[in-house]
Amino acid sequence: MIKLGEYNTLTILRETEPGLYLGDEEDNVVLLPHKYKPEEYEIDDELTVFVYLDNEERPIATTLDPFLQLNTFGYLHCSAVTEYGAFMDWGLEKQLFVPFKEQARPMKQGSWYIVYLYLDEKTNRLVGSSKTNRFLQNENLTVEAYEEVEILVTHITEKGANAIINGIHKGLIYLEDIFEDIRSGDKIKAYVKNIREDNKIDLVLQRPGYRSIEPNANFIREELEAAGGFLPLHDKSDPDTIKNQLGMSKKSFKKAIGTLYKDKQIVIKEDGIELK
Fold it and tell me: What is the residue range of 96's domain?
């Protein structure tokens, strides 16, 4: 079965004027237009292609890489808004349609949005939705405290940065735990700091608790080496100065230099820390 909105590994069956016809083991066939065919190929070669619907709603193959796949989230640019809905640039020739009913708030041309790609069972068409919450769930969690996860930052509020975790769950990075510049649409690594009784997930960008001491200590040692062996920072330095220079909280900094000091790797002076 050739799957819409996904990558398929298919066999080259024949070459025609429009392009290469590719097929699967169930005799399903799709066209790969000539402009996407590889420079070198032979009949019966296998190709991995992405399959979606063309302007006439027919399955079509491409070797281009879309910005998102079926049942995943992406950060997309709105190219146009018409009387039917919004059209998003998702890296392919035909743009992704987001109906008005699937817009969390009215989309505007030129703006960026977190969009989920799904297959409409009634029409068998690929459709986008910015109503992302209905595609997420925190009832049955697949993550644990301290676990490393992949997140997509959705939006920043007064409370912190909201994020999608592993494409499945919702989470939040509190403002006091953000020590670097992050924006909506960023795909980055994070860590589960805490799972509350209501299954809400708190995230941090550095390993939480005692697990963060060793990597932070190594990071500070690398910064010391890059700076010639001395940094004008110590346990009485202003928290904002530490955050701006090293991207970590003062608490994490003090734990890290404490580790380096105990290991006799640094000397703590009145005006900073020095590598032994």
Answer: 73-133
